[in-house]
Specification:
Layout: E1 5-11, H1 13-16, H2 24-34, E2 38-45, H3 49-62, E3 65-69, H4 80-87, E4 92-94, H5 96-108, H6 115-118, E5 122-124, E6 128-130, E7 139-144, E8 147-152, H7 156-174, E9 179-188, H8 192-198, H9 200-204, E10 210-217, E11 220-229, H10 232-250, E12 254-257, H11 262-273, E13 277-281, H12 287-293, E14 302-307, H13 311-318, H14 322-328, H15 333-347, E15 351-357, E16 372-378, E17 383-389, H16 394-414
Helix pairs in contact: 2-7, 3-4, 11-16
Domain MoaB/Mog: 7-174
Protein name: CinA-like protein
InterPro entries: CinA, CinA-like_C, CinA_C, CinA_KH, Competence-induced_CinA, MoaB/Mog-like_dom_sf, MoaB/Mog_dom
């Protein structure tokens, strides 16, 4: 089955100036992907006639579907409809159905229409109207030389409703699209290059219609295995078979699949094992507790946290011995062990986690440079501590430290 390609063209000076974040493109891409349509390119242009026309020409040369958002308002800076009419060498005509909808919408809201509002019902003569149930700017569907041009409002909630309820079903009917299926494998605490080396032979043996992508983020690498084919059932079985071959190669680093996040996986394990956890944080400043409590239902297993940034708090609240702090300093194995054991005892939890280090970008010394982090885990049977040697970047160090401890907690709970 022939692949169907789309380009997304977002229109608006506010996007180029950085005054708003373009969330529309991401939403549209996700919706098209589910429909078996592959987005080949995304382009943003300003409210400029020549820029829009050049964008349309460029998109038409490479895509089967050109999806446009923005520039459909009633004011003079919104020029998308007029430019589309010029591009297709046609005129704008008044659509009585749209005009009636706009009049009813204003009446229902107790507002008075003016002449500018009436221009919302002007539509290129070659366009089919896509109804906008929640706004005044209609969408437009234009077929031209085998290509489909779709224009939607830039207001996200208007665009999303139109895309989900009207555009996607219409595209599915218009095009015969192949199945596109993704399988996600989530890994943690392994560099992208090391991961690639471990799975190189498996990756090289993948069939041509299955593609692997590496998507790194702080301390994690998400693997996306994508298949494209005519039969969704056969394709899904192929992908699952390949994932089954991959798992033994990197099982120690896989924390989840599909929509899993490390904090959700850990939360599920804590509930399953009927364990509770508390945290004593210095260099991570409460970020570990934040991730643990970002999961709905975390009150079942997360008891509390102390951000023990100063030595005084470490001593007063966690019973860290002044002698330990004097002899070894706050960033040390004895201190972080005492913190983990102290928080577990204080809050009466099954598990205590602790962090202490030099997050940066300053505060380091020759003996303990920036990026020197100690972490600890304590339960009723054992205490474990480990030194991490990380980066010069503060937020990266906080994230990497948190990832390490969450994954270590996952591994202990999985034993």
């Amino acid at each position: 089955m022939k692949s169907v390609y789309a380009e997304i063209l977002t229109i608006g000076d506010e996007i180029l100036y950085g005054h708003i974040t373009d969330t529309n493109s991401q939403f549209i891409s996700t919706a098209l992907d589910k429909a078996g349509i592959q987005v080949i390119r995304k382009t943003s242009v300003g409210d400029n006639r020549e820029a829009i026309i050049n964008g349309l020409k460029s998109a038409e040369a490479v895509a089967d579907i050109i999806i446009i958002t923005g520039g459909l308002g009633p004011t003079k800076d919104d020029i998308t409809k007029k430019t589309l009419a010029d591009y297709f060498q046609t005129t704008l005509v008044m659509n009585e159905a749209v005009l009636s909808h706009v009049e009813n919408l204003f009446a229902s809201r107790g507002r008075v229409m003016n002449d500018l509002n009436k221009t919302q019902a002007l539509i290129p003569a070659n366009a089919q109207v896509i109804h906008n149930a929640v706004g005044t700017a209609p969408g437009m569907w234009i077929e031209h030389q085998g290509k489909v041009f779709i224009s939607m409002p830039g207001v996200p909630h208007e665009m999303k409703k139109m895309m989900e309820e009207l555009i996607v079903p219409k595209l599915r009917h218009h095009f015969q699209t192949p199945a596109i299926i993704h399988k996600w494998i989530k890994t943690i605490n392994i560099p992208e290059s090391t991961l690639a080396e471990k799975i190189e032979k498996w990756e090289d043996a993948l069939p041509a219609h299955l593609k692997l992508a590496y998507l790194p983020k702080m301390g994690q690498v998400r693997l996306r295995l994508t298949g494209k084919g005519d039969d969704a059932g056969v394709l899904n079985a192929e992908l699952e078979a390949q994932v089954a071959q991959l798992i033994p190669l990197i099982k120690d680093h896989i924390y989840g699949y599909e929509d899993d996040e490390i904090e959700k996986v850990v939360g599920s394990l804590l509930r399953e094992k009927n364990k509770t956890v508390s945290t004593a944080e210095s260099c991570t400043g409460g970020y570990l507790a934040h991730l643990l409590t970002s999961v709905a239902g975390s009150s079942h297993y997360f008891i509390g946290s102390i951000v023990a940034y100063s030595n005084q708090i470490k001593m007063n609240e966690l019973d860290v011995s002044p002698a330990i702090l004097e002899a070894y300093g706050a960033v040390s194995e004895p201190t972080v062990i005492a913190m983990a054991e102290g928080i577990r005892k204080k809050f009466g939890t099954s598990i205590g986690l602790a962090t202490s280090g030099v997050a940066g970008p300053d505060g380091g010394s020759p003996e303990k440079p920036v990026g020197t982090i100690w972490v600890a885990y304590a339960d009723e049977r054992e205490t474990f501590a480990k030194k991490l040697t990380l980066t010069q970047e503060r937020m990266l160090n906080i994230t990497l430290t948190t990832n390490f401890l969450l994954n270590f907690l996952r591994m202990k709970l999985s034993e």
